[in-house]
Amino acid sequence: QGSQKRGNSTPENPRPKRTLSSRSPYALFSPNSFSPSVTPSQKYRGRSSRGEVVASFGSVQGLSWNGSGGGGCIPKLFGPPEENLTKSYKFMFQKALDVREVLLWRIQELGDVLKSHHHLEDFASVLLPAQEPVTVLGQIGCDGNGKLNAKSVVLEGDREHSSGGQIPLDLSELKEYSLFPGQVVALEGTNSSGRRMVVSKLYEV
């Protein structure tokens, strides 16, 4: 009987909202407590320091370059005509067959350099089993999508001797080596099973 009833809230007489006391833990984490009032950032177009030199190096200031004409220059082609571009050309739009031909030609050219420099005999095929040490020619490749390591090295043989075949390499007998994918090398080793070559010597350009 002595208790006071809470008044109903009506649009004409709204009930005042309760405010959080300072002792309430919720007041410490209210938006007003951790949202400082900051000035909005200036728009990039409205910046006032446009064209201002912020830092400089050296003692020369205001240096300008002037051309000396060159209107009568005529370009001159050097080398064979088949090696020069005389019309529009789309970069990196080469056909896969053309790219393959260039890579095989590069292996053959560097193979001749390796043979003459290291006084090597004729190269053998990487696909044929060999109980005795043989010398093969090719370029280094990787059998996976990751980085090249000692367990993922393969040799892509040349077209003349190996018809472009591949064979995994065992490099455990080499004291030291440094290889990268695409490197053209000549290797000496044994391929007793025809499935893996144990390398004993490495010839580089």
TrEMBL record:
Pfam families: OB_DPOA2. GO terms for cellular component: alpha DNA polymerase:primase complex. GO terms for biological process: DNA replication initiation. It comes from the Eukaryota. Keywords: Nucleus. Its main location: nucleus. Residues 1-12, 19-42 have a biased composition (Polar residues). It is found in: Nucleus. Residues 100-204 form the DNA polymerase alpha subunit B OB domain. Residues 1-46 are annotated as: Disordered. InterPro entries: DNA_pol_alpha_bsu, OB_DPOA2. This is DPOA2 polymerase. It comes from Burhinus bistriatus. The lineage of its organism: Eukaryota, Metazoa, Chordata, Craniata, Vertebrata.
